[in-house]
Write a structure and sequence with these properties.
The chain has six helices and four strands; from the N terminus they run βααβαββααα. Helix 3 runs parallel beside helix 5 and helix 4 packs across helix 5. By secondary structure, the protein is mostly helical.
Length: 154
Amino acid sequence: MDFNFTKTNRLSVFEMIFGIDWALVKKLLDGWKDGTVGVLSIKKKGKPKSPEQLGYYYPVIIPAAIKGFIANEDFSLTLNFGDKKIEVELTEKNMDNFLKLRYAAMTGKYMDKTDMNMEACSAFEDICIKWIATWLKVQVPPADKNWRKKKENK
């Protein structure tokens, strides 16, 4: 969660609303001129997302979504500019952005994967899998719990 601020000599809105001890960041801010504009980021603590989660998202979930779009001719990725529609190429990056926007539409909050902890990443992947199954009629294969053993045996 990001909050824009402008430094002043008054009690900060963060202290009043969130109970943040402004004195903890005072030393840093004292070196800045009044009127300096910045962003204070407040992040929920939690275990960071795991490499395994992203190792499931990029090589399994994204290709399943692309496969669904290709197989289902009723769907395409398009950008609408007024009365113009521009079809977007089905790349990993474009599909990733599309799925993040679907997640935002379904949950009411946009989250970039860099800001996700393990819990948020799991929720994001679950929503992606459900959306792909519901709308594209593609079943995303479950994560392979024995992937490490298979990798070691190769």
